[in-house]
Specification:
- This protein is mostly helical and about 80 residues long.
- The chain has a domain at about 20-70.
- The protein is built from 3 helices and no strands.
- The chain has helices spanning about 10-25, 25-40, 45-70.
- The two termini are about 15 Å apart.
- InterPro entries: GrpB/CoaE (IPR007344), NT_sf (IPR043519).
Length: about 80
Amino acid sequence: MHVRQKGRFNQRFALVCRDFLRARPVAAASYALIKQRLAERFPADAEAYYDIKDPVFDIIVEGANAWAELVGWFEPPGD
């Protein structure tokens, strides 16, 4: 569970990435596979895991932002 403050950058990117990955199952499966392989490769080295995963996620964020603009995505109302 992640808690985000409304209106902060980390709140928006979490939502747009979530919706992007839901809308693009191939991207979601690819990201899941990367994370799985990294966990297998670095089971006890979180730093190495994140050294690779974070730049991959940066690419996903770029794709999610482009997708959001293309489809007219907007931030859903809060719960």
